[in-house]
């Protein structure tokens, strides 16, 4: 394949790269007064990139025709679906940021530029079909994320979150690099296709250790147990718009990358990595649920909720089938909507001084003071708990059906039983908001953009969203078929 064809396949990434560099110059020469303009242009760039990847998803691109740069990059339908989710989540995080940072007089044009470059890294991650491409995309995303976590320079919690994320992220990168070096040493190639072919005859002990270390490094990025320890602290300390970003877009990219590595690079040895994924899935469900029960800080609780939901997503991956991949993507799309809506609702809770409310004590009796937010939170929490007829229930149903079809009935039974634990702390939200004595702390209004995103997310995961689920299911099936076309 010539370079002209390769560059044609990476046009979305080129758009993000060019836009990021231009916006960086605008920010450098224009100063803080360009924050609004840079945010709008960044959202436009992300929207344009989304329009460019949409044809690959609609056409079900996959196989050799979607490969670029001698098999190092794949612009298939699987990558297109993941990119669309990341772009939409990033646009949402750009929309809600001015209302938060503007109040603190901390809105700077660097924020949308960092979001843009982080999204570029995620775009490369989900299309990576070579260990080298994987690492370039992962680090481009991570370097921007470290700065975003500590974006509020005068806030000690934000600085602490950035430092913790950087230190533990560097450790995870080292683990991942060690696994990549072992994989290369025992297979003789960094290409996913080459690794899969080299292991078709069997998995040597050295290659098995390489597989374990690679999955361990990726487990940190998706905050799966036992590599979840950074998540509650970073989610609590980072600015809420940044926390919203971490819980949505990077989560999509990291999970999509993990799925591609497992099903493509190590697809011929799914019996070996399936045990690891099943352990991480069940441990994440249980630890996420139990860890959230004692939390009083809302952002920390949603951090454990994120860990819990990663466990359900990994159950779909454990099936190691096209149906499992489709169910995983279906759950991932619903999860992004639920997480985005939940964090935006918390972002909108402020007192008369404009300070954000972050504990259960602050939202006691919320239904009597801010009823619209309380009812939206009720629907979002019930959906996260998997209560029908909300979309969170259908997302869980999809992954459990996929593992049953794959013959992993005990995994489905344990997963269903463990999901009951998580319902406790989601229902606690409802109990505090609707049945406790009102404290009347949430008084300040929110921006139009925040209200719009909260309303859209609530509608999408309500029974109304069921009418759109058929189209979503069609897209996830096309995405899974695109991934397996090259396997």
Q: Your description of this structure?
A:
The chain has 487 residues and is mostly helical. The chain has helices at 3-9, 11-30, 35-58, 77-103, 110-127, 131-149, 156-187, 192-198, 205-221, 231-237, 240-247, 249-265, 270-293, 298-318, 322-347, 366-369, 371-385, 391-405, 409-435, 448-461, 466-485, and strands at residues 67-68, 73-74. Strands 1-2 form a two-stranded antiparallel ribbon.
Helix content: over 70%
- Helix/strand-derived class? mainly alpha
Number of helices: 21
Radius of gyration: 21 Å
Largest sheet: 2 strands, antiparallel
Strand order of the largest sheet: 1-2
Residue-averaged pLDDT, rounded?
Answer: 86
- The ordered H/E elements are HHHEEHHHHHHHHHHHHHHHHHH
N- to C-terminal separation?
19 Å
Low-pLDDT runs: none
Number of distinct beta strands: 2
The general outline is globular
Strand proportion: under 5%
Keywords:
single chain; about 475 residues; mainly alpha; two-stranded antiparallel ribbon; 21 helices; 2 strands; about 75% helix; globular
Summarize the structure.
With 487 residues, this protein is mostly helical. 76% of the residues lie in helices and 1% in strands.
Topology diagram in text:
Blueprint lengths: L2 H7 L1 H20 L4 H24 L8 E2 L4 E2 L2 H27 L6 H18 L3 H19 L6 H32 L4 H7 L6 H17 L9 H7 L2 H8 L1 H17 L4 H24 L4 H21 L3 H26 L18 H4 L1 H15 L5 H15 L3 H27 L12 H14 L4 H20 L2
Antiparallel strand pairs: 1-2
Helix pairs in contact: 2-3, 2-5, 3-4, 3-5, 4-5, 4-11, 4-12, 4-15, 4-21, 5-6, 5-12, 6-7, 7-9, 7-10, 9-12, 9-13, 10-11, 10-14, 11-15, 12-14, 12-15, 13-14, 13-19, 14-15, 14-18, 14-19, 15-17, 15-18, 15-20, 15-21, 17-19, 17-20, 18-19
